[in-house]
């Protein structure tokens, strides 16, 4: 006979998991969305690493600047080719934390919020890989993709893949701090609010289920 012991997880994971005992509000206006972005050493989910994480919350189509997080991670893996994109040096004056600390901070901040990102599959995968390296399960949060939400507006029927730059230009969103995690999170938050307003005009009622509904997977890039 084999005896299986229940796997023990650290307290920070238990605290995160306990947040999901509380159900999301039935009122859409009360749902906490956390828009987030990661800057990474590259696009290989297994090989590359997170350089920084930026988040900002949105509730009832209002961006909550005070409800945000910005973390820079120590770089065990360094790719000089990507520095010209994100500008994050291996060493410098920016305070950096370990991957474990950054993940603890991220989980404590997002709690059971609905996560939102542009081409979210990549950012979610990078966070999940970091969790895997800590011997932890995957994220439990529901996820929305602003690329998918834009397709829902049917403002453009000629293609189904749009970069954050393209949509920022279309909606006249300033690209301040583009290619920083916190900057891209804020740009995505502005885009998210604009898309919600458009979808609201097209539909009498917007629900989380409606926003999540998708028949196709949005690309990573």
Give structural notes.
This protein has helices at 11-18, 80-86, 99-110, 120-133, 146-153, 164-170, 181-202, 208-212; strands at residues 32-40, 50-59, 62-72, 114-117, 143-145. Helix 5 (146-153) packs parallel to helix 7 (181-202). It has a single domain (30-212), classed as 2-Layer Sandwich (Nucleotidyltransferase, domain 5), CATH 3.30.420. It is globular, with a radius of gyration of 18 Å. Residues 83-89 have low confidence and may be disordered. The protein has a 5-stranded mixed β-sheet, sandwiched between helices. It has 221 residues and is of the alpha/beta class. It is built from 8 helices and 5 strands, in the order αβββααβαβαααα.
Please render the helix and strand layout as text.
Blueprint: H1 11-18, E1 32-40, E2 50-59, E3 62-72, H2 80-86, H3 99-110, E4 114-117, H4 120-133, E5 143-145, H5 146-153, H6 164-170, H7 181-202, H8 208-212
Parallel strand pairs: 1-4, 4-5
Antiparallel strand pairs: 1-2, 2-3
């Amino acid at each position: 006979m084999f005896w299986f012991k229940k796997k023990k997880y650290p307290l920070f994971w238990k605290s995160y998991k306990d947040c999901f005992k509380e159900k999301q509000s039935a009122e859409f206006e009360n749902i906490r969305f956390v828009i987030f972005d990661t800057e990474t050493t590259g696009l290989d989910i297994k090989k590359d690493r997170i350089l920084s994480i930026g988040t900002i919350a949105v509730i009832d189509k209002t961006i909550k600047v005070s409800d945000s997080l910005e973390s820079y991670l120590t770089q065990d893996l360094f790719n000089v080719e990507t520095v010209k994109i994100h500008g994050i040096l291996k060493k410098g004056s920016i305070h950096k934390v370990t991957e474990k600390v950054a993940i603890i901070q991220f989980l404590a901040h997002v709690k059971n919020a609905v996560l939102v990102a542009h081409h979210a599959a990549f950012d979610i995968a990078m966070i999940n890989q970091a969790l895997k390296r800590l011997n932890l399960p995957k994220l439990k949060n529901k996820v929305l993709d602003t690329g998918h939400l834009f397709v829902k507006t049917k403002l453009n029927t000629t293609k189904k893949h749009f970069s954050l730059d393209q949509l920022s230009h279309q909606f006249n969103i300033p690209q301040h701090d583009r290619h920083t995690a916190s900057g891209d999170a804020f740009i995505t938050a502005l885009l998210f609010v604009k898309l919600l307003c458009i979808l609201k005009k097209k539909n009498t009622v917007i629900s989380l289920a409606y926003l999540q509904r998708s028949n196709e997977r949005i690309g990573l890039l």
